[in-house]
Write a structure and sequence with these properties.
Elements lengths: L1 H28 L7 H26 L5 H33 L5 H6 L4 H8 L3 H31 L6 H27 L9 H6 L16 H14 L8 E7 L18 H8 L3 E8 L5 H10 L13 H7 L3 E6 L8 H7 L5 E3 L12 H12 L6 E7 L23 H11 L3 H31 L6 E7 L4 E2 L5 E2 L6 H4 E2 L1 E5 L9 E6 L3 H9 L19 E5 L6 E8 L2 E8 L4 E6 L16 H14 L1
Parallel strand pairs: 1-5, 1-6, 2-11, 3-4, 3-5
Antiparallel strand pairs: 2-9, 2-10, 6-10, 7-8, 12-13, 13-14, 14-15
Length: 619
Amino acid sequence: MYQKMKKVFLLPFLILMTASLALMSFYYFDNAIRWESVPIHLFISFCGYAAVVSLSILLAYKAPAQFKKIAGIVSTIIILFSVVWFIFQHLTTFIGFLFWSDEVTFSGLISYISVLPELLKFSGISSSFFFTLAIFVVTLLFISFGFWAYHLYHFYVSPFSLSNRFYKVIKISSVVCTLLFIAYGFFIYHYTTAGLRGEPFADAFRSERIYDFRFKPTTPNVALQIEAHERFLEELELPENPPNVILIMLDAARADHMSIYGYERQTTPFLDSLYQTGKVHKTEFAVSTCSQSECGISAMLSSAFYSRIHQTNYKVQEALSDAGYSTHFLLSGDHSRLYPFMRRYYGDRLDAFKDGFDFDGYPTDDKMLIHFLEESAQSNLQTPAMFYFHLMSTHILGARYSKFDVFEPNDFHAQGHLIIRGRFSGLNDSEKEILINNYDNGMRQADQIIKLLFDSLERNGLLKDALVVITSDHGEGLGDGRVFGHAQHIHHSTIRIPLLIYSSNGWYENERSSTFGKLSDIAPTLFSVAGLPIPKSWEGYDLLSDKRTYSHHLSTFQGGNQAAIKLIGDDFFKLDYNRTSNTFSIFNLSNDPDQIHDLYGTLSPDVVEALKEVYRKEF
């Protein structure tokens, strides 16, 4: 009997644990989790498996003879369902870290089935290859699970006896392991779990109903937000001609790959021409809060560091709505299916909300924004108005058009697997060239989309007396410092962003640039220029005052870094703290943007202390 138990329980368990350890090691080395999540996951996996095995054996052993077959079927289903759930949690975590740099939910995956053909087309994967592979994998799993189910069922229905000692061990283990597993779920569901982000079971237990952002639970300062709201209303005096406020967010756009920021390639011809009119204020060195969309977008809309961002924050769109503006969020990409918490964060006071799944086509095709804008403009549009546009042309998942393939050689369909392979083994020079050309072509396309948006805004009378922000939620690693993609790191390439403010009335010469800025500075600047009071809860600076001297950053991945950037003299120095290795590094970003030369042991003590002072203050 014990030999049969080894065959039907122990061998599958060893296979599962080995695969689990391999995947958890991948997550750890990809900076997705901290080391303590690995033993915790293995321990919880053992508890979960031991619990269902013990319960299933007890059920089959204690079942009356006339119910033996039914008990065998139920026991088999319990085991198979638990293992399928276990595999699914790892699968969604694995897919998320590779393609979305975040966990994905079952409902999120289901949402993308309707656009699977377009997704495959733009990712360069043949539909026939995908479905052939899918059928092969499903068939293999069906055969494997069928074979296992056959042996499990025959074990349960065959007569077997348990010694009193072994029976007690099984009873105790079933109770203890079940309680441990439930306690773990209770802890994850109700209390802070920032240190376990990316651990598959932790992600399974999390609830979108209580977590406003999946990357961190947060404790809101509701009193501060209420006070900010009330004081804003008390101080509000709407100017005679309030400007329209227009936010244009380029997903994953790097400032150093834009010709308006001095890039040698002409990737932003429209923005270049716009800058020459004298109507664009440029922040020379601008940074995001992190290298992921959630915290970048929320930092812009809440003017706060992301550890202090919550559903209750008083946001730009809410303040403008209180000031009599109509508010319109017209967004390419997914802001409601895979990221339902972002849709909730945007709030329910919007006059219009549309994202990629409201478009009859590929959900990251930026041409939808022109269509959405024309629809809004032709409705009974109330002005003044706020518009937020989110573009995906510079993102790996954004739809691309061949007419923007200016830089050769390129292969847009190879971009996804080049980034993923780059993370594992690096790329050679020719492959990096393809990756950079693909990205620069996406920037050319984004520049043209912005031009079309400007044309539509002007045609519909929305650009007159308007303030337009052009920025990004984060950057993108293209092999700089061996970093590919975004989210897992806060390397300079993943947080350096553009920050441009267009004023239809122009800028005075001494207001056309600022030295240092952050996404949280956008809202205070706009409200200052528009003549609106700045809510007390907002943390950013008015960019025209040029007051910012430092910024701080935190990777949303638990294995990532914390960082502080400080302007010292004419140079930007960055202090990196790696939470996994517990080490500091310092880089001079002004002459070493790739972060190759660690200066930690060579700089003067005054510079090191100035950086550590910022770090201690913020972290």
